[in-house]
Specification:
Blueprint: E1 2-5, E2 11-14, H1 17-21, E3 27-32, E4 42-45, E5 49-50, H2 59-62
Antiparallel strand pairs: 1-2, 1-5, 2-3, 3-4
Length: about 70
């Protein structure tokens, strides 16, 4: 799955989709999908990620109290 990194505008390949959907994780492992070489994995804040269509992540992925 690919998401857009807001500060850079680059696409990020999400390496752990399970932690992306877990509202108790504020960061997710991924790597930039830019250039010809495979980039090293790093942690990204979910608050800085969007879908490539510019839609925000679902509230149930980012807020542990989303049912309130």
């Amino acid at each position: 799955m690919f998401l857009k990194h807001v500060p850079t505008g680059n696409l990020i390949e999400i390496l752990d989709v399970r932690s992306l959907a877990d509202p108790f994780h504020s960061q997710v492992a991924g790597r930039f999908h830019a250039g010809e070489e495979l980039q090293d994995p790093e942690k990204f804040n979910k608050s800085e990620l969007l879908f490539p269509s510019e839609e925000t992540l679902p509230n149930c992925w980012t807020n542990p109290d989303y049912k309130q």
